[in-house]
Batch of 2 targets.
Target 1
Amino acid sequence: MMRCPEFRYHAAKTVEEAASVLADHGPKAMLLAGGTDVVPNLKRRQHRPEVLVSLRRIPGFAGISIGGDGAAVIGPGTTLADLALDGRVAAEWPGLSRAVGSIASPLIRATATLGGNLCLDTRCNYYNQNYEWRQSIRFCMKAPAPHGSALTEDAGGSVCWVAPASPRCWAVSSTDGGPMLAALGATVELRSKARGKRDIAVADLYNDDGMLFLKKAPDEVVTRVRVPRAAGQKSAYWKLRRRGSFDFPVLSVAAAATFSKSGEVTDARVVLGAVASMPLVLAESASLVGKSLTDDVIAEFAGAASRHAKPMDNTDFQTAWRRKVTAEFLTGALRELRGDDPRTMGQLGRRVARGASCLG
Ligand SMILES: Cc1cc2nc3c(=O)[nH]c(=O)nc-3n(C[C@H](O)[C@H](O)[C@H](O)COP(=O)(O)OP(=O)(O)OC[C@H]3O[C@@H](n4cnc5c(N)ncnc54)[C@H](O)[C@@H]3O)c2cc1C
Ligand code: SF4
């Protein structure tokens, strides 16, 4: 059995208290929400915090409300289950419901939170392994040998096993919520002791770097997620994974668009997930504006946009195949936006529609 290393548990009762502990302890403190990512990482010794600051006892940290402007204001402590099952969210932002409803398993979704999902660690086949496995091939730069381990003379920490000549880490952004919230134009509120409050678009929350993948500073707490409502907006989320029951994405397409009464796109944002260290907001989305989503328009868009998918060989499936199916996933998501029922789009569409978006 893998055990967690020793740590001090601090159950914050307010956001200010959580931010204060982060400020006081710097990199030695870490936030804990549902723990569905943090705890396995602790057991594998990828993190060794001295203090774990739990957010679960903060009153009002969870909950979904719809404001007078129609926007959803979601507490970061809201569980993925509550979010996925919320009828108001499903009606207004169906892509978000599907994205969070596709995460992990029902049991995990009952504990996992939206805030934790947005800040989810990046993933790599050489990183998501236990301590001994990583030690046996020499620790990579994302998770060097912990201080005080038996490997002090050769702690690793300078090489990337995926791209040994690379100075950076290519671990993959694997959040399902991030790409969809970016496509929907959502923002998060961040709070720190030193700098107070600031808002940042989810689309701007990430860096394309497997180690420094968040633009959120380590002392900042995600305190609110706001999803704007746009009249006539449609959204869709298509996710590729091996097992439809609970796997992480190895490719996802999050798409949101608004339409004029005559059916032309008035605004669009399409985001690729799980093909880089950050969700990729596709610049080609702007080319859809003013057009109807005809088969030709969709095919041209999918062909151009799929070139951004350059997955590395550090998650599931062959990279060449993942690149190849990107256009298919983009096509499916855009067809769904224009009103096609995914269940009429062959086996893949039927699987996406029932949330089991795997091809395996
Ligand atoms: C078997 C399995 C399958 C999974 N499948 C998927 C999947 O398909 N898709 C997917 O996206 N995820 C998946 N996950 C990962 C994880 O369960 C989810 O991403 C979950 O939403 C993480 O939320 P949490 O509350 O458990 O986060 P935690 O584990 O508590 O925290 C995750 C990270 O977020 C930080 N954090 C948490 N809350 C805040 C906050 N308010 N402010 C700032 N930082 C914060 C923590 O410090 C930590 O760095 C899976 C996990 C498992 C074990
Ligand atoms: S991409 Fe390279 S540095 Fe990053 S986790 Fe994988 S092997 Fe380690």
Target 2
Amino acid sequence: MKNIFDIKNKVIVVTGATGVLAGAAAKYLASQGANVVFLGRREEKLQEAVAAAKKSGSDAMYCVCDVLDKSSLEKANEAILAKYGRIDVLINGAGGNMPGATITPDKTFFDLDFAQWQAVLSLNLGGTVLPTLVFGKSFERQKKGVVINFSSMSSTQALTRVMGYSNAKAGVDNLTRWLAVEFAKKFGSGVRVNALAPGFFISDQNRALLTNPDGSYTERGNDVIKKTPFGKFGVAEDLFGTIHFLASDASAFLTGTVIPVDGGFSCFSGV
Ligand SMILES: NC(=O)c1ccc[n+]([C@@H]2O[C@H](COP(=O)([O-])OP(=O)(O)OC[C@H]3O[C@@H](n4cnc5c(N)ncnc54)[C@H](O)[C@@H]3O)[C@@H](O)[C@H]2O)c1
């Protein structure tokens, strides 16, 4: 019987590929035989990531580009198509937060830095739309392809502090459903769009908010753990199975979904 989870030789383009979560996922996919294209802004980090991926036998490559700079994405697209001739999967992993788009406990909504709010919206939502506009053209042509977006626990419940980020990730959820319908209706059932919503994973962006220098949890860290039935933070490996599933034919009838990978955070009332 055919292995429906087989991703060998699939061309998988990953933005934010030197980051904690998408970076680890990109290396995992390479270890499973995919031809992974690492996209990021810093060449040195990309070179390291590709060298690691090649050790597992993957025919990986990298392109330096910014998810908000269309011409850099177009150049990357040309290089990818010149090497592989097609793209099978796009993982929109680039994203993040900015201090001015956050309302800390000593501030109120009226202290919001509107320019930073716009910048966070632009990075998380625009930075998902623009790569899909460029790399998704292959899916239109092939009538086959997969988009995997990164949502967050903040997209459906009000998570204190992170206002701009929450607004943007709610947009990513909506975009996931909207594009799923648009692509299915115009290009057929071979083109799918889904997202995963990671729970709380320690990364460079939230480490100081969730943990103290001695590794113990901050008050917010403890609050998160209390609302997570598994009683722990996620580690990047926890995302691999869901990403692999979404990238493979095993999820062939799945589109427009946002899958929580959260140790139960989203299903628990907290009481
Ligand atoms: N860590 C968590 O708990 C968590 C939870 C839910 C969702 N997420 C989402 O998962 C994704 C990965 O996050 P992470 O935790 O690995 O963070 P990370 O900061 O390690 O990775 C994000 C990557 O995006 C890159 N990036 C930022 N702006 C960019 C730009 N303009 N162009 C190109 N690349 C750019 C960064 O350089 C970084 O490599 C993000 O979308 C994030 O919002 C993270």
